[in-house]
């Protein structure tokens, strides 16, 4: 089994009577007409579907309120983790005894959820009868359970391919307690403010990690993951103490999280992880940074040489990694030249080697973003209009 989807059917409200059948009129006249609803459910993705599962039936109370608090567990296949979204279908039926044996339990209503992997948690489902009329509401909770194999990979990640370890990590990040676990695994010396940035980073890593098949070489996996690994370091740098070993903090944090997931001390290949974290980091300090900026098509003025050096390094990094811009998804460097309409977001940092960091965005998009949000979309650090400098 490659993990499981847990569907907890909590309660139903406003459940309507199912279609009348022979004997219902007499039951109603005798005061015995009642609803005894149960829920049938299945999960569908790509061209696959699970077998149908059912809750027990319950007696509906006043206002046709039904309480189940019953969890259905659907085993998943490996193909599930490759999909972007899936469906969960629901049928509410009225439990009949003799009539049910003869003709099946009568339908109260059907409903369906279209879910992507970021939409776990509490959901509401509208039920509709055979004529399309609303016939009640269900409250359900969706949770993913990572495959047991993912935990085994994480427990021995130092001796498994990087792609497998990253994929296993991404699978555990879809579990309902992943964000809290990651917060709890934060090294104590790292400022707690970093917790506020985790959720947006998790979404990006889950997408990248699940995009791996697990068969990639370490070099191929590093090429795929280096951008999201770099953003993790930028996030940590926002809240680390001056002079801290940022890759070291990242490795420590990851080890703590793996250990919490597996229940035993995890062994990580630190050399390989540091290679991932430093992928495409370059240093052009031996060159004149202003000459390098002109060669690549960047324009910059009114700043000190250190800022020019940081930007030259950053652009060379983007070139080597064929980096795509966050908003437009265009490659930032094409045919050795910076594309038009790019801006640098400059963040001063006394702990940085050259006193600042440079982030690259589409100028029109980041200006619009800043006017609405006032925080950097990747690092979630405060972002002022004057921090945005157009460079092409």
Automatic annotation (TrEMBL):
Protein name stated in the entry: Uncharacterized protein
SUPFAM superfamilies: C2 domain (Calcium/lipid-binding domain, CaLB)
InterPro entries: C2_domain_sf
